[in-house]
Amino acid sequence: MRAGRQRLSRDERLAYLILLPALGAVFVIVTIPFVLVIIQSLSNEDGSFIGFVNYSRALGNPLLYEAIKATGVYAVIVLPIEILLGLSFSVLVHRTVRRPGLRAAIYVLAILPLVVPPVAIGVIARLIYAPGYGVLNVILERWGLMHGQEINWLGDPTLAMLAVASVDVWQWTPFVYLVFFSGLQTVPRESVEAAQIDGAGWWAQFRYIDLHYLRPLFILIIVFRLADVLRVFDHVFILTGGGPGTATQLLSLYMYRVEFKFFDSGQAAALAVVVLVSFSLLYTFIARVLPLERA
Amino acid sequence: MRRSPAFILRSALATVALGAAGVLYGFPLYWLFVTSLKSKGELFASSVHLIPHNPTFAAYSSVLIDRGFWVLLKNSVIVCFSTVVVTLVVGLVITYPITRLPVPARLRVGVLNWALSLRFLPPIAVVIPYFAIVRTLQIYDQPIALIGIYSLFNLPFAIWMLKGFLSEIPLELEDAALVDGATRWIAFRRVLLPLAAPGVMAAGIIIFTFAWSEFLFALILTATPNAQTFPVGVQGLVTQFEIIWNDMAAAGVIAMALPLILMVIGRNYIVAGLTFGVIREK
Predict the structure, then answer these.
(1) Using the beta-carbon criterion (under 8 Å), do A291 and B278 form an inter-chain contact?
(2) How many C-beta neighbours within 10 Å does residue B46 have?
């Protein structure tokens, strides 16, 4: 008994001996940039302390609010479409496709867009939307849907936003599909059969059984997709570069421009601090609603 | 099986929907590939050809050799491979004690939550201070700068995936080795690691593809072919004034080829990875 307890405490000591240096190192590496960015946000170009000037410049810049608006519009277009399409597809495949081979094939095809580099997807989108070589206009013309003047998909603010959003929908709807589809596999067969015996139709089954089991996944998808929308950069950078004007200049593109095009590192640092602080506040909320296993 | 009219209707609907999805996903990829096979002359033909008339691999050699992009490809491989090694080692060092050794539950949950919070960090807000550090350390435009930040950003994912794999292996297997007089290290190397190998490999493959796709950090932290990764090169082709469509398309095909191949191997773990193990594919 005593020997056993001694081994336990030795194991526990070993755990701390391994864990603490590793966690400590990662913690320091993560923390240094935070400290640095706070110092940078409070100083002048030459390093002298100037208080909150950078913050008032950053928060007083109308371009910031345009970027927030563009990000919001992007999220509002992209999230409902992805969720609706992903959900419909998952229910459709779950109910109608029975052959395991076909299911496996759909699964593999659905994960492929998720691993295509966003830069490559930006290239594809350009081959589709760009003036001149863009194949969308070619197809529209051959089908007789467009006459004479070609549509400038990337030159009009609204169309450019839709083009950029369509890329997101293309890449991420399969993710939503996969999450919902595996959620549907957890619906107990008994409750479905019981409902069928009671005469529940297709819609009733979906509304009262499937949706019940999928509910936690909605939160998961919205949280993960929102986090990703806030970091969207690559395909927009390739496709429109934020333009025309600032129509598709999402938050991360805006911050990139402030630091690396306007070389205003004070303002960029202040923005970074604001974003990191709002992110931390948001995260404490997110952590509570996420349905993660924590064992 | 009962074949009611409703079932047939639903099957028809499913066929149409899947067919439409097939076209919407297939055609863009087809167009990318077909464009990469066109010759310069065909690109500037008066009408756009949906099927190439004289397919050629000229664009590929133009991109890889004439433009010297094979160097960027090499950089990408070096950076991604190093990232995988660093991330997996640090990931194992952190997950081994919290899954195999008796630590308080609060510590375990704390570590996992902290890792999860890193997953939601906005990269652009982190890269601004990281850029300052990189310049101070004089590792700007060096692969090591990328390896560092890629490892940091993939670590949360590695921790959650490895934790899942390690906790599925019964503690008794290691205990048996320990009772036989093996040290912890031997038990880890000879018993745990071989059993966890498929999972560790899968995590490695997925981290590799994430790092392979990364663009923002590479754009900011590199400037020359000394450290530039392939996606940065692809971007360079796109924003030029005169766009060479076939070269751009060939670069796009090359950029997506490796992740697609790797994903066929790691397919069973990708969804679990992207959702931090909430969704387990069986």
Answers:
(1) yes
(2) 4
Asked whether the beta carbons of residue B264 and residue A120 sit closer than 8 angstroms, the reply is no
Q: Does B51 touch chain A (CB under 8 A)?
A: no
Q: Which residues of A touch B253 (CB under 8 A)?
A: 120
Q: In chain B, positions 64-103, which contact chain A (CB-CB < 8 Å)?
A: 90, 93-94, 96-98, 101-103
B217-263 tens-digit pLDDT: 999 999 889 999 999 999 988 865 667 888 999 999 999 999 988 88
Cα(B17)–Cα(A289) distance, integer angstroms = 33
Strand-pairing partners, residue A49, are: A43
Is A225 part of any domain? yes
| Residue A144 backbone zone (phi > 0: left; psi -120 to 50: alpha; other: beta) | left
Whether residues B90 and A133 touch (CB distance < 8 A) is answered with no
Give yes or no for B121 touching A (CB within 8 A): yes
Distance CA(B258)–CA(B250), nearest Å, equals 13
ipTM for this prediction = 0.88
Q: Does A54 fall in a domain?
A: no
Q: Which residue of A202, A275, A283 is in closest CB contact with B125? A: A275
In a domain, A31, yes or no: no
Q: Specify the pTM.
A: 0.89
Alpha-carbon distance B74 to nearest alpha carbon in chain A (angstroms): 17
CB A18 to CB B18 under 8 A?
no
Query: Which residue positions in chain A have pLDDT lower than 50?
Result: 1-2, 294-295
Averaged pLDDT, B27-49: 84
Query: What pLDDT does A2 receive?
Result: 47
A251 min Cα distance to partner chain B (Å): 9
Residues 6+ apart with CB under 8 A from B233: B67, B69, B72, B251
Say which residue, B93 or B279, is predicted with more confidence: B93
Fold of B68-274: MetI-like fold (1.10.3720)
Joined tokens for residue B62: 């133009």
Domain count, chain A: 1
For residues A59 and B236, what is the distance between their CA atoms, to the nearest angstrom? 32
Reading the block at residue B4, the tokens are: 């009611």
B191 min Cα distance to partner chain A (Å): 17
CA distance B190 to chain A (A): 18
> In CATH, what number is assigned to the domain containing residue A116?
1.10.3720.10
